[in-house]
Design brief:
Length: 77
């Protein structure tokens, strides 16, 4: 891989790292929101939607980490 492509991949990786940090903040906010729902509402639609959102955010975060790892590997080659 030549240096211009390596630099472009590195720039993409940096942008994704920033997005990952933002996503982590949103995950934490959603978790805090759910933790503040009273216990008597844990079986409510609102609580279940929050759980589902958190699960989706976790999956997105994990996928983003995987993409970053692939980019790191491509840059090194």
């Amino acid at each position: 891989m030549n240096n211009p492509r390596r630099k472009a991949l590195s720039d993409i990786q940096s942008a994704l790292e920033e997005l990952k940090e933002t996503l982590e903040e949103l995950r934490e906010e959603e978790e805090e929101y759910r933790n503040n729902i009273p216990e008597n509402l844990w079986m409510s639609k609102r609580y279940k939607k929050s759980e589902e959102a958190s699960s989706n955010l976790d999956s997105a975060y994990d996928s983003l980490e995987e993409v970053i790892t692939y980019l790191e590997s491509a840059i090194v080659i």
